[in-house]
Predict the 3D structure of the following.
Amino acid sequence: MSAALDRLAREVAADDELRRRLQRRTLAVVVASQVLGGAGLAAGVTVGALLAQEVLGSDGLAGVPTALFTLGSALAAFLVGRVTQRRGRRLGLGLGFAAGGIGAAGVVIAAVADNVPLLFLSLFVYGAGTATNLQARYAGADLATPRTRGTAVSIAMVSTTLGAVAGPNLVEPLGRLAESWGIPALAGPFLLGGAAYVAAGAVLLALLRPDPFLLARRLPDAEAPAPAEASVPAEASVPAASSAPPAPARPGPGAYAGAAVMVLTQIAMVAIMTMTPVHMRAHHHGLSEVGLVIGLHIAAMYLPSLVTGVLVDRVGRTPMAIAAGVTLLAAGIVAAVAPADSLGMLILALVLLGLGWNFGLIAGTALVVDATVPANRARTQGTIDVLIALAGAGGGVMSGVVMAASSYAVLALGGGVLSLVLIPVLFWASRAHRRAQRPA
C-alpha cells in the first residue's frame, strides 16, 4: 500500500492533469458525504431541545442536548484527527460518521424506552457526526493546489446546505412515520440522522480512494508554505543559519482575535437557535414550521460561504468580523421583538443569525491563519476548535436556564448584545499588531 502510494505520488508530482483529476474525484466524494452528513446534523439541531423538553418535562434543561452533542463533537474532532493523522481521511471520517449513526440510533431507543441516561449518552455520541461533517471539508483541500484550497473548502461547506436544509423540512413526515412504528414523533428526525450519517461514512470508506491525505503528504510540495508566505524566490528561501529568525513560539494577536470572534459568534448563535424551536412550540407552531425556520437558518449558515470568502479577502478580515457582530445583534433584536405568532419575523431573525455566524466563522478562521505559521498553526487551530465546541455547549445549556428564568426575548437580545464584545477585541488585536510591527 505504501509503495503504491509512493509510486502514485511520483506520477501526480510529474502530471498536473492527473492531480486535477484526482482532486475532482476527491471533491465529488466529499460533496456527496457532506450532503448526507448535512441531513444528519440537522436532526439534532431541529428537534433535540424539543425531545429533551418532552422526556425531561422541563424547559430549563432543554438546552442540554445541544450541550451534549457539542461536547461529543469536541472529543470526536480530536479522535478523528488522530486517526486521520495515522491512517488517513477515509478511515478517520468513516469511523466518525459511523459513531454519529450509532448515537442517533441510541437517541431513538432512549426516546422509546423513556430512558434519560441513555438519551444523554446517545446525544453525546451523536455529536461525533457533527464533528466529522465539519472535518470532512478539509479532505476536499488535501490535493488542491495552494491557489484553489479556499475554493475547495468552500464548495464542500456549501454542499452541506443541501442536506441540512432538506433535513428540517422532513421533520413532520418523519414524525408521522415514527409514530406509525410506535416511536415518539420527535425521535423521527433521528431516524434520518442515523441513516444519513451511516450512508456518509459508507460513501467515504468505499469511494475515497486513493486517500487524499495519505497521498498529499507524500507529494514533494507537502511542506511548502502557502503563496502568501513564499515571498522570496525558492533559491533564496533558506537564509544563512546566523540570519534566520527563530520560528515564533506563540501566534500573533490576530489568532486571539480570530478565536474570540468564532467563540462569541458560536455562543450567540447556539443560544438563540437552540431555544427557538421551544419558543415556537410553546406558541403553537407546528413541526413543519419549526423545520422551515431551522432549515432556512442552516442554509444561511453555509450557503453564503463562497461569497463570504471573497468578501473576507477583498474587504478585509476585521470589517467582516465586525459585520458578524452587527448582524448577530440585528438577529437578536428581530427575534426579541418578533410577535410569537409571526413566522416571517422568526424566519428573518434566524436567517440573520445564520448569516452572522457565517461571517464570523470565515473571518475568524482567516484571522487565525494569518497570525500563525506552520510551526504553531495546527496546535493553535486544535485549541481553538475545542474552545468553540465548549462555547457552543455552554451556550446550549445556559440558553435553557436563561429562557426558563426570563423569556425568549431576553435570551435573544442578550445573545445579540454579547456578540458585540468581539468589536473591542478586534481593535485590541489591531493595536497589538501595530505595536509588534514598530522597530525596537
User: Anything to note?
Assistant: Confidence is low (pLDDT under 50) at residues 222-248. The two ends are 53 Å apart (CA to CA).
